[in-house]
Amino acid sequence: RSWRANQNGGSPLPFSNYQPKSFYNNILALANKIDPPAAATTATTTTTTTTTTTTTTTVTTTSTTTQDLKAALDAKVSKWGDANGDGGIDMGDAVAILQALANPNKYKLSDQGAANADVYEAGSGLTTNDANSIQMYLLGLIKTLPESYSSNETATTKATTTTTTTKATTTTTTTAAVNNGGQQGGFDMSQFGGQGGQGGFDMGNFDWSQFGGQGGQGGFDMGNFDWSQMGGQGGQGGFDMSQFGGQGGQGGFDMSQFGGQQGGFDMGNAGGQQTGGNGGAQVQAGKKLCAISFDDGASAQSKSDPAYRIIDALIKNNMTATFFIVSDWIKTNEQVQYEYQNGMEVANHTKSHQSLGSLGSSQIRSEWEQCNSKLKSIIGTEPSHLMRLPYLDGGGQVKSALYDVPLISCAIDTQDWNNASKDQIVNTIKQAAQNGSLEGAIVLCHENYATTAAAMEEVLPWLAQNGYQNVNISDMAAAKGKTLAGGQIHTRV
């Protein structure tokens, strides 16, 4: 029962408008109150008896060194919390820690990063508590890092060698405990490579039960922060990291494709909205990124209309785009659903496409809210919170009325709305690519012109061949580590 199925009225995620809801802090507080029970195991014992005669000659020396642990740790750290080594502290550091714990062979931290990341009981080693401390620091719940130091504030080392000569009969008993899986309870990570575990610190679907395995349920389960398929298949999620190495993830805060297919590094709107729909094209490493976006939807009434041709051209070239919808102009809900289902970003172009600069604050807000509500009813979840300004008009009270909405203009206008031909549209984009201005640019197009559809069918393959990938605006921002701030007009990322 989750927001993915449009049940219970919407999106019960722990963030709204970039800010944590009250229950997010309650969730964090539970970690300090609940002790996980010991996991049940099934053991198999093997006993081996060996008779040996040994002669050992050594020299005995004992030395003891005591060192202040806090000072030693501080000396090793370049910046507390900077796990990924980028010089700052942000959610990327928390993610880097969780990746390293989930799949250390693939996402190993550097020695410096590991030292920086040990912010919970510093000196005790890397755990999920360190990622939790970084999140609490970012939320202002703790003021400094590290959150704490290990209770052992001194480190004592002792070296001992001993001189002996012995003849002995030695009986060696070896007991091997084999965990056969299936345990329940606690902070359940029973599926690191296994099968069948259930339960544990279960708060919905913050599901870690499938790190490399299959079939588990539960884990640290918080609604739809679905990590259930790290290394597996088929996960869907809100804060979706389900596809580290797998396939098919869906997500809002979608990081599902570090190493897999479909989805990209989709951080949506950092408030729980799904921007990339069901899967979509992965943001490809090493590609130059641009965001050709399309206004005035949803205009199509048949699959041969320009809008569908544009969507299909994007799919064919492993690309996505942002489609800005005018809710009063929607011809069919099916087109909006088709965009969303194929990984396009479904975004807001107001209810009626009025120029907003001359309207009052409440009218401006109503134009956004009514369109947002309509789109949500069609795709069954929150649409992207980006909004294309009608006529690119951001004057008057627009910025203050939409203080929490990233306002989208453009860096490149193809002039398709002004009767530009197919060749003119293509040449505008190619010239921008060749002079370097296309990378990171938001490009203005419209979905309802046959010339635009024909231009996309020609220029998208050309872009792919020349090192570019077109992606939706939110994916481009996430891939570049940028934030699209509310109440500001954005022309590029």
Key attributes of the depicted protein:
493 residues, alpha/beta, 6-stranded parallel β-sheet
What's a concise summary of this model?
This protein is of the alpha/beta class. It has helices at residues 22-30, 69-76, 91-102, 111-117, 128-138, 306-316, 333-341, 361-379, 398-401, 422-435, 450-465, 473-479; strands spanning 15-16, 19-20, 44-45, 61-68, 154-161, 175-176, 239-240, 253-254, 288-297, 322-325, 345-348, 387-388, 407-408, 412-413, 442-446, 468-470, 489-490.
Walk me through the topology.
Blueprint lengths: L14 E2 L2 E2 L1 H9 L13 E2 L15 E8 H8 L14 H12 L8 H7 L10 H11 L15 E8 L13 E2 L62 E2 L12 E2 L33 E10 L8 H11 L5 E4 L7 H9 L3 E4 L12 H19 L7 E2 L9 H4 L5 E2 L3 E2 L8 H14 L6 E5 L3 H16 L2 E3 L2 H7 L9 E2 L3
Helix pairs in contact: 3-5, 6-11, 10-11
Inertia-based shape: globular
> Biggest β-sheet: count, sense, barrel?
6 strands, parallel
**Distance from first to last alpha carbon:** 36 Å
Class by SSE composition: alpha/beta
Rounded mean pLDDT is: 75
Helicity, in percent? 25-40%
User: Helical stretch count?
Assistant: 12
Oligomer: single chain
What are the low-pLDDT stretches, counting only 5+ consecutive residues below 50?
5-9, 153-166, 168-275
Elements, N to C (H/E): EEHEEHHHHEEEEEHEHEHEHEEHEHEHE
Secondary structure: number of strands:
17
The percentage of residues in β strands lies in 5-15%
Computed over alpha carbons, the radius of gyration is 28 Å
